[in-house]
Structure formats: C-alpha cells, structure tokens
Amino acid sequence: MSKILVTGGAGFIGANFVHYWRREYPADTIVVLDALTYAGNPASLKAVKSHKNFHFVHGNILDQPLVAGLLREYELDTIVHFAAESHVDRSIHGPDAFIETNIVGTHSMLKAAKEVWLSGSGREHRFHHVSTDEVYGSLRPDDPPFVETTAYAPNSPYSASKASSDHLVRSYHHTYGLQITTSNCSNNYGPYQFPEKLIPLVIVNILAGKSLPVYGDGQNIRDWLYVDDHCRGIDLVLKRGEAGGVYNIGGNNEWTNIDIVRQVCGLMDECFVRDEALKARFPDAPQVRGRKAESLITHVKDRPGHDRRYAIDAAKCRAELGYVPLESFETGIRRTITWMLDNEPWWRAVMDGSYRDWLDRNYGG
Ligand code: NAD
Ligand code: DAU
User: Fold this and answer.
1) 20 noted as active-site residue
2) Structural contact between residues 122 and 175, judged by C-beta atoms closer than 8 angstroms
3) Which atom of ligand 1 is nearest to the CA of 62?
4) How many whole angstroms separate alpha carbon 83 and alpha carbon 106?
5) For ligand 1, is residue 183 a contact (CB within 6 Å)?
6) How does residue 306 score in pLDDT terms, banded at 50, 70 and 90?
7) Ligand 2 center to residue 94 CA distance, Å?
8) Within its chain, how far is the Cα of 247 from the centroid?
9) 200 lines ligand 1 (CB under 6 A)
10) How many other CB atoms are found less than 10 A from the CB of residue 215?
11) Which of 22, 62, 267, 340 is surrounded by the most beta carbons within 10 Å?
12) Furthest CA-CA distance within the chain
C-alpha cells in the first residue's frame, strides 16, 4: 500500500491521476497539494473529495516546511510531482512564473523530500517527476522519435524550465541518493483539460460558434496520448521503474494540428446529427445554421519559436515496464468530446469566471 502526495492534483493530468489511483488502489492514502492557480480546479476532484483516505491541501510547492510537514504528518512514501505552469503560450508572454514554479518549486520539493526521507529514517520512498517531450526540442520530418538519451534542446521558456527541473531531479538522485524517476510524455488530451489547450479549445469554440485559431500553416506535429494512458504509464514507472530511471511515455500517434482540428470538427458535426437537442443547448454552433464546424477554422499568426514536430519512442517503457497505450485516438477523442458535452457546467464555470469567484470565497484567492 502506498501513501502518496500528488502535487498539482487539481490540474488536468493530476486530477485524472487521482481518479485513476482511487480506482486502482482504493485503500491508499492520497494527499493533493495544489496552489489552485487559474489552471487548478477543485471541481475536478469532486468525486473523491469525501473519501476518507483523501486529503486536499491548498498550498504552494515553494513552501518547503509545508511539504515536509505533509510528508511527516501523513507518513507519505511516494510523491508524484505534476505541479507546474504548463502552457507554452503563457510562458512566452510571462516566463517568470515558470521559473518560479517549475524550477524553484521543483527544487523546493526535492529539498523537502531529502529532509524527510534521507534524514536517517531509511524509509522506502519514491519521488516521481512528471516531465515533457518538449525538453528534447523540435524534430525534422524524417528524424527518428525522441528516445530517453536524446540530447536536451528546449526552445520555449516553458520547456527550458522543465528541462532545468529534470536536471535538478537527476542531480538529487546522483548526489544524495534520493529514489527518483522521471517520465517525459507527449501531448495529453481527455477530461478536465483547461480550454486554453488545443483540443478542448476547439470543442468549446465550436459550441460557441467562435473561430478556431490554427497557428501558422497548421502543419506542426504533435504525438497525442489519452490522459488515462499517461496515468497508467506513471503507475508502471512507480511500480517497476528503476530508481534514477527516465522513461518516455507516448502514444505513437502523430498528427498535424490542422488534421486534429478537422478531425474534431467532423466528430462534432456527427454529434449534432445524432443528437438534435444539441441545437437548443448550443444555438451559436455553426451546425444550427446548417454549416460545418470546419467553416470556423482561421489561420492566425504563428506562435513565436513554434516547435515543428514532437514524437516519442516509447520502446523502453514497452520493453522494461510492459507499457502499451489502451486507448486508440479514435476512441479517446470520442470519449473526450462526450465528456465535454456531458460536463458543460465544468467548462462553463472555468470560462465564465464563476469558478474564480468560488475560489476567492473558499480559498481567499
Ligand atoms: P495544468 O496546468 O492543467 O495543471 C497544473 C496544476 O499545478 C494546477 O492545478 C495548478 O494549480 C498547480 N500549480 C501550479 N503552480 C503551483 C504551485 N506553485 N504550487 C502548487 N500547485 C501549483 O497542467 P497539466 O497539463 O495537468 O500538466 C501537469 C504536468 O504534466 C506538468 O508538469 C506538465 O509539464 C506535464 N506534462 C503535461 C502534458 C500535457 O499535454 N498537458 C504533457 C507532458 C507533460
Ligand atoms: O508535448 C507535451 C506538451 O504538450 C506539454 O508539455 C505542455 O504542458 C502542453 O501544454 C502541450 O504543449 P503544446 O504547446 O504542444 O500544446 P497546445 O495545446 O498549447 O498546442 C498544441 C499545438 O496546437 C501546438 O502546435 C500549438 C497549436 N495551437 C494551439 C492553440 C492553443 C494552435 O494552432 N492553436 C491554438 O489555439
């Protein structure tokens, strides 16, 4: 049985991980530590919040005494570290928060873990650091996908901050013997994703009849993975991964952005044909006027420094951990669209500010 601290557990992947872990290991203690920045949403944890072994702590990973106190109070033996500033576009406009949370915050987490776990108690422990394929930089069309030994070449303030944190994590293993693992994952999609990221943004914009902004020529490539498959990958790394090890997690599922947007448009058109009631729920959607969702696609100015292609080679995970993604893109994207249609209050609240008001009332901002 594990007693696990999930940082950033109110964010997209963190919340999915909490639900995954609760399902797989119902008796385990889970403590979530989250600062509830704009991307953290306690509503994403509603289904687990009254569980007796679940604890939510509103706090910052930069607060080393708080983290060390939690590790001691709950006798935690595992950290899964998701908390981060995660959006590339935001890092271009305001890098400071990325340096603070992703680099200084991760270092603060490492110091707290070292203080408690390496202080002579000899407790079995594991610090798992969740990183990204973006640290490897950008691939040309014919380059082989990223492997764990690909040289780091981060191009955005976001990926540079994640790369720095990866190096700090590595150093705490080699220098102090902290039992760490790191996973570098490709683009995730699925429930609870904040609608600033491509796939949920396209879905909510179609429903609102707003334009679908495609950066540049739309030919940039990402390797998409259903979020639950990422969570399962992390579980396998925790259970079977070697301390000090690095694991690339991916879906072997490369798409150009324009094809992703067209695919989502086509599936949304199908939804409106299948379910007439959607027209009354979403009167601004193009389908209401007999138009296709694709008519909303608009090419806009490119993201500065936009990486052309990412792709993950997950052979090490497959060979050493037995990892295979379960969800195909076809099934995963349908599940995601269905989830968005079934959970309108979740994304409406995130977008209309009532969720911010609720945060202010409950957590003082
Ligand atoms: P997200 O932005 O949805 O969630 C981040 C969470 O961290 C939020 O709940 C936020 O409130 C919390 N947080 C931010 N700063 C904090 C701080 N200082 N202290 C405590 N909590 C803080 O991000 P996500 O998409 O769920 O990504 C989670 C992790 O996975 C990140 O480390 C990211 O780099 C990595 N990752 C994401 C993807 C992806 O496609 N989304 C892919 C690979 C790796
Ligand atoms: O590769 C893993 C990374 O994937 C994670 O480390 C990041 O945390 C996560 O945000 C994601 O980064 P991307 O920049 O790839 O994701 P995003 O959804 O912002 O964009 C996906 C692609 O779509 C990218 O090429 C930019 C493009 N895009 C994005 C938005 C928001 C558009 O063309 N239009 C848009 O409006």
Assistant:
1) no
2) no
3) 18
4) 8
5) no
6) very high
7) 16
8) 16
9) no
10) 15
11) 340
12) 69
Side-chain-facing half-sphere of 300: CA atoms under 13 Å: 11
| 36 touches ligand 1 (CB under 6 Å) | yes
Residue type, 199: I
Question: Could you tell me the pTM of the whole model?
Answer: 0.98
133 included as an active-site residue: yes
* Single-letter code of the amino acid located at 255: W
133 CB neighbour count, 10 Å cutoff: 26
- Cβ of 77 closer than 6 Å to ligand 2, yes or no, is no
Which ligand gives the minimal distance to the CA of 35?
1
Which residue do the tokens 């935690």 mark?
76
End-to-end CA separation in angstroms for the chain: 35
Determine how β-strand 187-189 pairs with β-strand 180-185.
unpaired
Active site residue 330: no
> CA 64, CA 70: separation in Å to the nearest integer?
10
Q: Determine the atom of ligand 2 nearest the C-alpha atom of 257.
A: 23
Look at residue 360 in the predicted model and tell me its pLDDT.
74
**What tokens appear for 138 in the block?**
């950008």
Ligand 1 pocket, mutate which of 5, 6, 7, 12 (most atoms under 8 A from CB): 12
Determine if ligand 1 sits within 6 Å of the CB of residue 101: yes
Give the closest residue to 85 by CA, choosing from 105, 70, 65, 66: 105
CB of 40 closer than 6 angstroms to any ligand 1 atom: yes
Q: Can you tell me the distance from the alpha carbon of 216 to that of 187, in angstroms, rounded to the nearest whole number?
A: 19
Q: Please choose, from the candidates 194, 120, 129, the residue with its C-alpha nearest in 3D space to the C-alpha of residue 162.
A: 129
Q: What pLDDT, in 10s, does the model give residues 52-72?
A: 999 999 999 999 999 999 999
Ligand 1: nearest atom to the Cα of 197: 41
Asked if 194 contacts 39 with a C-beta cutoff of 8 angstroms, the reply is yes
For the stretch 283-302, pLDDT in tens is 999 999 999 999 999 999 99
- Over the Cα atoms of the chain, what is R_g? 20
CB-based contacts of 201, cutoff 8 Å, min separation 6: 195, 212, 213
Give me ligand 2 centre to Cα 48, in Å. Answer: 29
Q: In three state form, how does the secondary structure of 328-365 look?
A: CHHHHHHHHHHHHHHCHHHHHHHHHCHHHHHHHHHHCC
The Cα–Cα gap between 17 and 307 comes to: 27
- Check pocket membership of 166 for ligand 1, CB cut-off 6 A: no
